[in-house]
Each structure stands twice: as C-alpha cells, then as structure tokens.
Automatic annotation (TrEMBL):
Binding site for [4Fe-4S] cluster: 236, 382, 438, 441
Residues binding Mg(2+), per UniProt: 283, 345-346
Entry protein name: Amidophosphoribosyltransferase
Keywords, alphabetical: 4Fe-4S, Glutamine amidotransferase, Glycosyltransferase, Iron, Iron-sulfur, Magnesium, Metal-binding, Purine biosynthesis, Transferase
Pfam families, sorted: GATase_7, Pribosyltran
Keyword Iron among UniProt keywords: yes
Enzyme Commission number(s) from the entry: 2.4.2.14
Catalytic activity: 5-phospho-beta-D-ribosylamine + L-glutamate + diphosphate = 5-phospho-alpha-D-ribose 1-diphosphate + L-glutamine + H2O
Residues at the catalytic site: 1 (nucleophile)
SUPFAM superfamilies for this protein: N-terminal nucleophile aminohydrolases (Ntn hydrolases), PRTase-like
Protein family (similarity comment): In the C-terminal section; belongs to the purine/pyrimidine phosphoribosyltransferase family.
Species this protein is from: Rhizobium aquaticum
Amino acid sequence: CGVFGIFGKSEAASLCTLGLHALQHRGQEAAGIVSYDGKQFYVERHAGLIGDTFTKTSVLERLPGSRAIGHTRYATTGGGGMRNVQPFYAEYEGGGFAIAHNGNLTNALTVQKALQKRGAIFSSTSDTETFLHLIAMSEGKDFLDRFIDALKQVEGAYSLVGLSEKKLIGARDPLGIRPLVLGDLDGSYILASETCALDIIGARYVRDIKAGEVVVITGKGIESHFPFAPVPTRFCIFEYVYFARPDSNLEGRNVYDVRKRIGEELALESPCDADIVVPVPDSGVPAAIGFAQASGIPFELGIIRNHYVGRTFIQPSQSIRHMGVKLKHNPNRKMIEGKRVVLVDDSIVRGTTSQKIVQLVRDAGAKEVHMRIASPPTMSPCFYGVDTPEKAKLLASRMSIEDMADFIKVDSLGFLTIDGLYRAVREPQRNGECPQFCDACFTGEYPTRLMDQEVDSKIR
Ligand code: 5GP
Ligand code: SF4
Ligand code: MG
C-alpha cells in the first residue's frame, strides 16, 4: 500500500491526490482520503484508481481543509470490499482521528480476539482496524500517548500516518520494514511512502523517518519520539527488487540504481550466450539494462506492454490473473525472430507470468529462450504487506531450479544469489547472524515472531 499525509497547506486533499497518484503502483484496488478543516473530518473512500475517482472536483470539494492523509490499497489481509478501504476514521472520547497503514501486523488476529473479549466490535476484516481499538481503549493521557501505547501492543510491519484534531503523526515499526519519508513544501510537512510522491508536488525531501520513530507534526513544527529500545533495522529488500518505483530514493539508495546493479550482478553470476537481452516489462527493465551493459549483449524491447492494464499480480482472482497476462504483453516479432533471447524479470512467484511470456517469445520465433531472474528464488510468503501467495503456491518452494526451467520451458534459468542481491544494495555480503534487511521471502528467516501464523497453517 501507499500512504501520504500533509499538514498545514491549503487544498491539502488535492495535494494528497497527487501524492497518491504517484504511489498508485503500491496499490490499485481502492483509495481513500480523510481531510480536516479545523472543525470537522471529511472521509472519501473509493474503489479503483486515483485518476478515475479522486480527480473529480465534486470529490475534492467534499474534502476541505489544510490537513489530509490518504492511502492506496492493495489487499494483503482482509480481502476486498469497501469496508476495508483506508484511511479508517473513528471517534474516541478525545475526538475524531484517522489512520492509514502500509504493512501487515503479524499478531492482529491474536490482539483482535483479546479486544473482542473486552467488548470491542470490529467492522472490517483488516489488521489495521486493530489500531483504532487499541487507541480508543488506551488509558494514555492524549492522542500521542494512546497512539504509542497502541504501537507497543502490535507486532509486524507498519508505516503509518495518523491525523487527529491537532496533529499529523507518522510512525515506522522498530525494524523499519516498510518505507516512510518526510518532505517539506514551503514550510508544510509531508509524509509519504516514497520520494516519488514528494517529487510530484514539488516538495523537498527532508529525510527518511527512522525505524521505530514516531514523528508528530503540528502548527508549531515537528517533534520526534523513540518509544522502542533500538534494534538493528530490517528494511524490506524486495522494495528495491520490485515494489518501489524506480525513481524513488529509499534509505539513501536510488531504486533504479540498485535495480541496474542487480542486473550487473546477475550477468556476472549467471552469464548467458544470447543475441539480445529482453526485459519483461515493466518490472524487469532496469535489471535488464544492467544485465545488457555488464554482458555487452544488446538490450532490445522485444516485448511491448499495454499500459492500460494494471499489474496482473494484484488482481485478486486466479482466473483474472491468467487473462491479465495476455492482455498485457505482446512480443515484437521483428526483434525476436531467429534470435537467442535472454529474458530478464524481477522475480518468479507462481510462475504463471514466466510461463506465458516464454510461450509468447517462442511463438514469435525465438531460436533459444533463456531466463534470468533479478532476485533469489521466492521460497516463502511475506507477512509484512507484500501479497505473495501461500508457500505451496510459490513455484520455488515446490521445485528445484532445473524443474522450474522445465516448467516454464526455457533453455536455461538463472537466479541472482542472496549475496549478489546484497552486493547490489552495496553491502559486502549478507550478515548471517543479523541480516541487514528483511529478506524472508528468499531465505525464510523472518525478522519477527509470527504470532498469528502459530495458530494458522499458512507456512506449514
Ligand atoms: P508470477 O506469474 O510468477 O506469479 O508473477 C511474477 C511477476 O509478478 C513478476 O514479473 C513481478 O513483476 C510480479 N511480482 C512479483 N512479486 C510480486 C509481489 O509480491 N506482488 C506483486 N504485486 N507482484 C509481484
Ligand atoms: Fe519484503 Fe520479502 Fe520481507 Fe516481505 S518477506 S518484507 S517482501 S523482504
Ligand atoms: Mg513483472
């Protein structure tokens, strides 16, 4: 998901709309904005893309005020439906407040059950609703105290923006799994999942919010709190591989730079005799450029993407996902016919995309089709806000690399090693005792306890 917040700027909801538009790649299912005009909160939540819903003047007119937070949704827990669309708005004894969340809590069900025992009633199936109840039931003296009290009771990944009658709050979980950055627009503070959302409104990047940090923005400025004992951080390495937009800078690294270096490492680790390097658009493009530059094999757009189809992976049902891949890619026969092609993509999850793309390229007359993947095999599901399917559906958890090559029908298949990935983010190697990143989907080493999973069967 993508989150955005702005404090003290007229037409806050319009700026929020632009920010969310830049964060659309983090979730296309639905979006919402909550604004505050000093007297009252206003809530708009709609299914679909920002450009189709929030750009209408009528919608923006219903969101007055100089403070706003927003969210682009990509369903990881709780499934679809409007009741799970964020920001969530609620009123507790101290007034109204709204919250938008990127990430996933790993103990939400456990906490929810305990809250229900105390009489709480939940109106969504989203883990994020847990925060509302924890804040409302807290005995903290003000909103900030209650907010921090709530954070102390949850586990997992969260980058949050919250809006109360007096404050805009931003917070990252103690491991800093999901990103959150701070920006400044003519003296007004902005919070956003990625820097590309600052660029679109001409805001200046100030800094990344730190892991475990809670920032409070009011008319008087900004203050920082660190309510947790510091621990080594574990930023999601998959943000660099796939999730973030390539023009964003996260944790001091430009995402496009990292992806190109990933391609270079891949070419060194897993070289290939081929005539052309072809990216699987769009997610494979930067790594394919790096691969081509390091190998000296020409880069060609051998597959053309139709841009009017969303990310196939994000469509909730399997049948639509199947259709989506065909709608999305077409081979450029002129480029491919008679050639030895090396395809570069960011990852193989279920293997559906790769299987179809390889077939397309063969049907277009390729002499050989090789595949190089810009990450290690995806072996384990993510419980921190990226929608990987359960373990049994991950191709790499069921098959050896050789069997995967047979399954997607390529002449050869190569993946980046985990150390290659760490080199691409400019770490000499993965620190086995305490990895510098979360890389659980590749290694199965989860940086937190998985409380809800202990009672569930998803990873068994
Ligand atoms: P597959 O067909 O193998 O399941 O999907 C792989 C494709 O989906 C890759 O090209 C990649 O761009 C995209 N993808 C990989 N991982 C994820 C993910 O966790 N979430 C989403 N939304 N897309 C992914
Ligand atoms: Fe990122 Fe993978 Fe960790 Fe999920 S499991 S937070 S996708 S590195
Ligand atoms: Mg892709």
